[in-house]
């Protein structure tokens, strides 16, 4: 399955809505200025791009998944929406004052090329959010996908050493560790959210025979039951807010 197909599956917008506080923090940290050129890489449903545009920036949002871009496009005609691959950005060198990517470019398979592309088109500030490694129920995904853990893995971006290896030559970096809470009324509620709203989880579930799918669901419910509180499930997921200044 291609990345475009994978990310067009399910209803990612359900999860995107839960990231609102992260999108706010990322845009606020990048302090948009009126008229500056801003690229949001792997924009998905466009939430970061929309915030930057509301703050006055001249924004382009790029994503590989047509279904998500369609949703983004329906939200604003002031932003230029581009279907494309983060590994081959269709923009001139130094075209942007700001480049952002919220849990986005980490999913492109060739990490070195993506890092080079971002540095090539950015002549100013960079802002990323990246998950810390081994967060969440990755061991369960791996067990049910029947594959070895992916290498390179999106989680690599959440290791400080790897992040500096990829971006440190081109950018002066500042890293802030933060926590996002995955919440739901019950483990079943969280399963509904993630099995519909997280396209990689959806794709894994769809690839399993019904019995195996039921076992996957049961394993995930058991996993989330350890995070149950009186207010429902609250699972902490650590991530880095990465800020960079082009050297
Ligand atoms: C977890 S979503 C994040 C979307 C958005 N940035 C947000 O914060 O809501 C990951 C996004 O990366 C996009 N993506 C994955 N691989 C990509 C690639 N090689 N080039 C561009 N976009 C990609 C997917 O289509 C999806 O929209």
Structure explained in plain terms:
The chain contains 11 helices and 8 strands. The chain is α/β, with parallel strands linked by helices and 247 residues long. Strands 1, 2, 3, 4, 5, 6, 7 and 8 form an 8-stranded mixed β-sheet that branches. The chain is globular. The chain binds S-adenosylmethionine (SAM).
List its salient traits.
247 residues; alpha/beta; Rossmann fold; 8-stranded mixed beta sheet; 43% helix; 26% strand; globular; binds S-adenosylmethionine
CATH topology call: Rossmann fold
Radius of gyration, rounded?
Answer: 18 Å
Number of β-strand runs: 8
Number of domains: 1
CATH architecture classification name: 3-Layer(aba) Sandwich
Instruction: Estimate the helix proportion, in percent.
Output: 40-55%
Terminal Cα separation, in Å? 38 Å
Q: Main sheet, how many strands, which sense, barrel?
A: 8 strands, mixed
Report the order of strands and helices: HHHEHEHEEHEHHEHHHEE
Annotation field: number of helices: 11
Q: Report the top-level CATH class.
A: Alpha Beta
The molecules bound to the chains, other than polymers, are: S-adenosylmethionine
Instruction: Return the structural class.
Output: alpha/beta
Query: Average pLDDT across residues?
Result: 95
């Amino acid at each position: 399955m291609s990345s475009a197909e994978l990310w067009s599956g399910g209803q990612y917008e359900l999860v995107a809505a839960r990231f609102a506080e992260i999108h706010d923090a990322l845009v606020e940290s990048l302090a948009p200025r009126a008229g500056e050129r801003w690229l949001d890489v792997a924009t998905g449903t466009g939430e970061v791009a929309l915030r930057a545009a509301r703050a006055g920036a001249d924004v382009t949002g790029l994503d590989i998944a047509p279904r998500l871009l369609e949703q983004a496009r329906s939200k604003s005609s002031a932003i230029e929406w581009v279907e494309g691959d983060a590994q081959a950005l269709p923009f001139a060198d130094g075209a942007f004052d700001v480049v952002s990517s919220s849990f986005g470019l980490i999913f492109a398979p060739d990490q070195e090329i993506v890092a080079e592309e971002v540095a090539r088109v950015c002549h100013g500030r960079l802002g990323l959010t990246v998950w810390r490694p081994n967060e969440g129920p990755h061991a369960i995904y791996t067990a049910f996908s029947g594959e070895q853990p992916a290498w390179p893995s999106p989680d690599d971006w959440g290791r400080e050493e790897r992040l500096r290896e990829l971006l440190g030559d081109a950018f002066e970096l500042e890293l802030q560790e933060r926590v996002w809470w995955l919440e739901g009324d019950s483990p079943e509620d969280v399963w509904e959210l993630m099995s519909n709203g997280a396209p990689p989880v959806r794709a894994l579930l769809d690839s399993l025979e019904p019995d195996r799918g039921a076992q996957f669901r049961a394993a995930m419910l058991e996993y989330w039951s350890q995070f149950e509180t009186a207010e429902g499930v609250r699972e902490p997921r650590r991530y880095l807010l990465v800020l960079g200044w082009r050297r």
